[in-house]
Write a structure and sequence with these properties.
The chain is an alpha/beta fold. The protein has eleven helices and nine strands. α6 packs parallel to α7 and α10 crosses α11. It is globular and about 60 Å long.
């Protein structure tokens, strides 16, 4: 069987929102090349031996990023694996909001990423603004190990620092840009097996209404922002008004930004 035929056969079996893309990414990983290279020059090749095992893992609902070991986000590629949250395209809305805010300026010089995970938002921001430096905070040592490795892989080890911490507790200094993708799923919400059975619950759930971590993070933002700075918080699509109310209570001005699907995805606090 050729690579082309095996991709089509796997895509017909995979149950996800993007079965064809999943199959292509798994095949590229099995071949040890980029997806682009595979599509341009390897579709007529014989199927590599390891492909069937990767497809079997996907059929068991393991995230593609865990199987391949990486995920593209904004302009960077980050390494991920079990124990860390898989970056999602919707989270790029936070970087888009920051780019829009700093358009026409030199950009932020100090960036804070609260709940940095594998460093996704911080490293994407530092790639956007090469003169900036940043700090990533996370409560998971495993996530910080990934973040350190990703900074090294991207040549940002001199600009990105990472620290074990509990949100902004005990954090000093001020920042031009604060990014945060906290847990925001209510504990009673149902999740599909891909997320429920594989990704870390601590990075997903935040109390019955999904707002517990916002209640801890938002009151700290004003003291951490320089004048003219912004904090951009990812939210669930129904949480815009509730998080905006918390931002107003903290003495900041909220604005809601939508993702490409037209759903509320981020609250900007300034």
């Amino acid at each position: 069987m050729t690579v082309r035929a095996a991709i089509a056969e796997a895509a017909a079996r995979i149950q996800s929102e993007t079965p064809r893309l999943d199959a292509e990414l798994l095949m590229a990983a099995a071949l040890g090349v980029s997806r682009e290279t595979m599509l341009l020059s390897r579709l007529g090749d014989p199927v590599p031996e390891g492909f069937a095992a990767l497809v079997a893992r996907r059929l068991a609902h393991e995230p593609v990023a865990y199987i391949t070991g990486s995920r593209g986000f904004w302009t960077v590629e980050v390494q991920v694996g079990p124990g860390v949250l898989v970056p999602r395209a919707d989270s790029e809305t936070l970087i888009e909001a920051a780019v829009a805010h700093f358009a026409g300026t030199a950009g932020p010089t100090r960036v804070l990423d609260l709940g940095t995970g594998p460093g996704t938002l911080l490293l994407a921001a530092l790639a956007e603004w090469p003169e900036a430096h940043g700090l990533g905070i996370d409560a998971s040592e495993k996530a910080l190990d990934y973040a350190q490795d990703n900074a090294l892989d991207l040549g940002m080890e001199d600009r990105a620092r990472f620290r074990l911490g509990d949100w902004a507790n005990g954090l000093d200094g001020q920042f031009d840009l604060i990014l945060c993708n906290p847990p925001y799923i209510g504990t009673q919400e149902e999740l599909g097996p891909e997320v429920r059975d594989h990704e870390p619950a601590a990075a997903l759930f935040a109390g019955p209404d999904g707002l517990e971590d916002y209640r801890r993070i938002v009151p700290e933002l004003r003291r951490l922002l320089v004048p003219g700075g912004i904090a951009v918080l990812e939210i669930g699509w129904t949480q815009g008004e509730a998080v905006s109310a918390l931002v107003r209570e903290a003495g900041l001005a909220p604005a809601i930004r939508q993702d490409l699907g037209g759903r509320d995805r981020a609250v900007i606090a300034s």
